Amino acid sequence: MAHIFRAPPDVAVAREKLFNPTELQTWKPEQYDTFWPYATNFWSHRRSTPLTDTQGGARTSYYYCRLYRKEQAKSKGAGERKKTIRRHPPCGKKIQVVTVWDAGVPCRYEISGYGNVPEHNHTMDDLDAIKRNQRIKDVVAASVQDGFRPAEIADAVKASHRPEAAAELTAAGGTYFERQDVINAGLKWKKLHPDHRFLGPRFQMLDQWQACAEWAEAQGYLVQNITAIRQADKLLTYGTVWAAEHRVNILRLRGHLTLMDSTHDTNWLGWYLYTIAVRDESGSWRPCIHFLAETEDGDILAEAFQVVKKWCGGRGGWRLRYMLTDDSAAEQRAVRLAFQGLEEGITEISHLLCVFHSEQTLKRNFSGPRYKRTYQHLRSALRYRKTGAGVEESIRLAINAAPEEKQSYIYREWWATRQQWALGYRTFSPLLLQITTTSPIEGYHSHLKAKGTKTLMSRFSLEGIAKHADAIDKE
Q1: CA distances from 402 to 145, 367, 407 (A)
Q2: Is the Cα torsion angle 388, 389, 392, 398 positive or negative in sign?
Q3: Residue 193 pLDDT grade (very low, low, confident, very high; cuts 50, 70, 90)
Q4: How far apart are the C-alpha atoms of 292 and 237, rounded to whole Å?
Q5: Are 274 and 304 a contacting pair, CB within 8 Å?
Q6: What's this model's pTM, rounded to 2 decimal places?
Q7: How far apart are alpha carbons 108 and 24 in whole angstroms?
């Protein structure tokens, strides 16, 4: 994070004048707006007279020294305090700021002493040690808004690697600036600007589920909450599907080859975020559909597919011919459940598996010298054999080279599914040979997560991650 605090060259002189005005000072509006935020830790606003006429009137504001006290505060507690009472002598210095208006806008500010106390009984440094001025707080709050952590912001403000930065911060009243000031400013900013993406444990799952759908509906999106009974344990699982209508039209027209993938760790409840994407006429990949699922199982995903099919116009509306995913068993089962092919009167759907993920699975299951020949034959079948017969030959060689305990696994998981993962069965289509991985969606999800830290995203509600994904889609 780069150095983020900059102050005007003459800020030290201006702060000295605003700290102890000994005679009437006249400030232009641009000067006052620039320098007054650097002096807010000196003064406490007490009252202002009403403005009678914005066309040619004036308003007087009265400020007392930050250390003004009618009497010294006394501790009422019987035990020891973690924080001691400030023992500075009360200061009676007061000023008045007269704002002169003309034609509906302030035209000048007149600052002068007020009351019978001619000057402070302490130094400007004493007040800098007690409180930070508004300008420093504003810089810090802006960085908090961008999601940076307190330690990063404090380092960027101090910029210890730049000697001139320390002098600049000192001149602007930041001699005693520390990380706790960032935390305090961040808490106040978040209180004034609550982020409804962060609901966390204060809202139950069903409340978040409903709030997410209500937000999408308020944006004018197509949205539907879904439920399904999991086949594995007969438990009810939940999900939410949403999409902008124009993106559904893109899917309907360009969905001949569709990519789908999920990502995790995007919200407090731990729901999975799924994205369906297609390539448009310009060759760019467009995320068309998003859905959140409580669990990663085929039943809830199949229900989401049914909703998308309905949005696309029912049977045949989504012109899907090839679905490309990673080697997730849940996603494969969902496609089988949702797209019955000829049984429901539509074209048979071919479910293709990502070559990269298939190769990673090979590496996990056939690592080490014992499986070297088996791995080489299966990798050849995956990437390099150009015909179906060649693929089958390589798989047979892999089975023969494998230990006995692995042969049934290869036959069950690789031979039976060879048309899904081997490139030799895709040579009839230049499109399928060109697009062999789910990298476009992987990149989209990486970009989505890069816009927020892991800690930040783990605090998202379901509505929060939906808003976050929507903002990424609009970039």
Answers
A1: 57, 12, 6
A2: negative
A3: confident
A4: 11
A5: yes
A6: 0.64
A7: 13
Q: What is the pLDDT of residues 65-88, one digit of tens each?
A: 999 987 655 655 555 555 555 667
pLDDT one-digit tens code per residue, 417-466: 999 999 999 999 999 999 999 999 999 999 998 877 777 777 788 998 99
Give me the half-sphere count of Cα atoms (radius 13 Å) on the Cβ side of residue 60. 8
Q: Look at domain 200-354+437-473 and name its CATH class.
A: alpha beta
> With 0-12 CB in 10 A as exposed, 13-18 as middle and 19+ as buried, what is 415?
middle
For the record, the structure tokens of 316 come out as: 């045949």
Residue 473 has, within 13 A of its CA and on its CB side, a CA count of 19
Helix axes 134-145, 179-192, angle to 10 degrees: 70
pLDDT in tens, 227-275: 999 988 899 999 999 999 999 999 999 999 999 999 999 988 899 999 9
| Domain regions of the chain by residue span | 11-67+89-192, 200-354+437-473, 356-434
Here the tokens at position 310 are 């309905």
Contact 150, 179 (CB under 8 A): yes
Cβ atoms of residues 278 and 285 within 8 Å: yes
